[in-house]
Amino acid sequence: MPENHQIAKKNLKVYRRSPAPWKLMGEGIILIYRFKKDWIEENGQLPLHLKGQFRGGLGYVMLVNYAFSPVGPYNELLFIPGKFGKNKKQAITKIYVDKDVSTYNGRANWGIPKETLPIAWEKAVGKDIINISDQDKQVFSCEVKSGGIPFPASTSFLPIDLHQVWNKVDYYTKPSGFGTGRLAKIQNLSVDPAYFPDISSQKPLLVIKISPFRIKFPLAKYAL
């Protein structure tokens, strides 16, 4: 297990294998940042192999409600600080989902360091309310208001080009997707920094809600 993932408390059981590629549908909220190197090094919860390797670029926090996936519906919170290393690829350094079968397959297919925690996603008119907990501890919570004129959104404008390392294997994955975006605003954000980078001190460049969206995670390229 990578060195920055001490929170997971469950021993993974045997789950249905669902190999790549995956096609998924749902809705998501993207918070777009340009983090400073010092902040990422101190607060980014980086695994050791990424320490000192930050190369800037756009950083993302994503909240995703997958209505359809090969392993059924599930919710997700993830952190992409920006680009790393000589190849300037991105990396997901923290990610929670609310189904163990997603955790198992995300690690096996793409080396994504998923961990499982309950995620509650409530919907109201023009507003999403997300809460993540670990038993009686609140890990992450926020409200997101969205609306206005819709516009097309895709990974052509917000590219994701991942290099993940899991169990000493390098995984390279470039998902692609598209959907309908609307401007959004995050409110009442609360983060437990023991579980997730505390972004409450950081101001996003832009917040977008994309609903609906479709995304494809292709078969990863490997380097042993």
Automatic annotation (TrEMBL):
Gene3D superfamilies named in the record: Acetoacetate decarboxylase-like
Pfam families: ADC (PF06314)
Domain of life: Bacteria
Listed InterPro entries: Acetoacetate_decarboxylase (IPR010451), ADC_dom_sf (IPR023375)
Name of this chain's protein: Acetoacetate decarboxylase family protein
Lineage: Bacteria, Pseudomonadati, Bacteroidota, Cytophagia, Cytophagales
